[in-house]
What we know:
Elements (H helix, E strand, L loop, with lengths): L2 H6 L2 H11 L2 H17 L4 H11 L2 H12 L4 H11 L2 H13 L4 H10 L2 H10 L9 H25 L10 H15 L4 H16 L7 H18 L2 H23 L1
Helix pairs in contact: 2-10, 3-5, 3-10, 3-11, 4-10, 5-6, 9-10, 12-13
Amino acid sequence: MTPFRAALRHPQFRAGVTEMSGVSLGIAAWGLVTGVAMVKGGLSVPLALLMSLTVFAGSAQLAALPLMVVGAPVWVIWATALCVNLRFIIFSAQWRPFFMRFPLRQRLALGYFSADLTYVLFMKRYREPRDDEGQIEYFLGATTANWLSWQVPSVAGIVLANVIPTEWGLGFAGVLALLGLSCSLLSDRATALAALVAGAAAVAAFALPFRLHIVVAIAAAVCVGLMIDGGGDAGRRLRDALLGESRRRTGAVAS
């Protein structure tokens, strides 16, 4: 039995699918909007399909699309997509203790399937890495549901873009769906404060190029969360490690 087939039978895989299904409607709406936007923006259907399957990042796709349409240099398109996706550096740093035991090829695959809401649900469920809690199975279940919730509507939007009228206002519907999802994840005062600060930071930095206001908003939210949590589990582990090293050096000098 292959590892993925074994993961399919794990209870935590089903738990990941179930929890991600609760937010799949908003993901599907945004995927449909992005698929329609790519074709109506001037991309051919094959190129739009290739972009949807390889990039798998709605904000980066929508940021790069206008630049592709006007014939911007390739380096500008890549730089814009990179800036928009800088938030995944933060996600990767948080995920590293959980997945560093896997080979590089598997970590690259996990990185491709990772997404914002997957990160939120995973970190909300698991506070520290453990091998006996089915964490990788939960991640695979959540990412599978997330990938399908995005790609199926995105492909439908690409194929049916010329049939769907612009007057339907799908972009506004997608924004409302994501806004509803975001509000549903505000489970405590600390999260609500972080979201409020992130929104204010995004508005204040909106004039930055390459949609860097998204990165500014995420960095502000992370800083607020760490300050409220006192550094969190990662911060406490770092402090304990530094304290232990300091004690070892002090003992070595004394001896």
